[in-house]
Design goal:
seven-stranded mixed β-sheet, alpha/beta, 466 residues, two-stranded parallel sheet
Amino acid sequence: MTTKDQSNLNGLANHNNNDNNEEAKKIEETESLDKMSELRMSSNNTFDIKASPRRRSIQQALNKLAALQQGEEFITAALMGPTTASTTMRINRRIEQSYLQDIESTVDREKSFSLGDILENVSSGMEVIVDDDFSLCFKRPRRRAWNWNAYLLLLWSIGVVIRYCILLPVRIIGMALAVLCTLLQFWCWGKLFAHDARKKLRYELWSIHFCIRMILASWSAVIEYKGVIASKKANQIYVANHTTMVDWLVVGQNTPFCVVGQLHPTKPFVYYMQSVFLKALDCIWFNRQEQKDRAQAMQRIKDHIQEKERPRLLIFPEGTCVNNEYCIQFKKGAFGLGAEICPVAIKYNKSFADGYWISRDRSFPMHLFDIMTSWALVAEVYYLEPQRQQAHETDIEFTNRVKQMIAEAAGLKNVEWNGYLKHYKPSERVIDAQRKIKADELERTYRQMVRQTNIVDRALGNATNT
């Protein structure tokens, strides 16, 4: 091999080495670009659409609150709900703190932009709209009127005249007569048994029972009772799902029940009914604004269930009216007293009258107006087997077991939503939390895009120089 051939080989080798070095640099820059950029356009790449962080954090927040409730001792709010504004504010802060912690835990500080983020956000929005089972618990289901068509228009018009011009006046007169007759009977019992309190109480209970039957009869109520009501005994509490204030009348047609509720001294008629008309039932009234009054009410509940002679105690542990399609979380207060729990399930037939009362949309008199202008009030009441807390059960587990029984008997969907959230309004910091997360992600994405652009510019500049 000549010297000239050797020099040519060396030059070729150097050229190959330079080409290899340039290719290595290009490969390294390309790898760095791929590493920095998450915009993978290859069709072989797939995106994992995870569960919505928002919905996951809400569920985790609820689970934390449930666990926190399980560890708490029995307090008045567990049965009657929040009291003063400070108590409500404290509960709101706990909900928001748990929610924000879960939101913060799902944030990936090193996360870069990917096409999957778009699909994830779209999926999150669709889940909120489609799977919104919370608001469904409190919405009145839309029912298509089967008799609203051209063929039945004449019959429908006749029905409207009958319901509003005949049935409504008759029912109003029937309710008024029932109440007046009961008050007259109270006056008679007071005169006849002025020195015999026990006999006077027994006859007053009979009068109230008679009044309930009269009112339901005026509404053309058709109520079917299934099962056998438990024998009356001490240390016994009845619990039922809650749809309307009329639930008490529907259940009380068989036997009068004592109820727990808020006292309304500012409403003269309501206050008179609570303090005089229902006095024989020994109902337990309290003032939500007075913590001391509520504590006394709790003590009265404990004293009430210890005496067999007193009327049965009925509690609605949901704490709010639900649309009779769902069964939401029960307050655990009534289940932590060591008493025998007698479940009662109530199911209304909406083909005749929708018993659901939305207090924010309709006042109670207007709710009664809706019932009295319907053809009939049709309902089924299920008396279930009495239950006691088992040795291995916590208060929460016992509560959920009874709730499951009621939901299955009445054909309701069993959900874990807390009825308190119906009245909960998120604060600005909760709303801004999601905005801040998205703003941070967009800012990181912008910075990454700037870095990627600089790398591309350098790569193109190097290629041009070469």
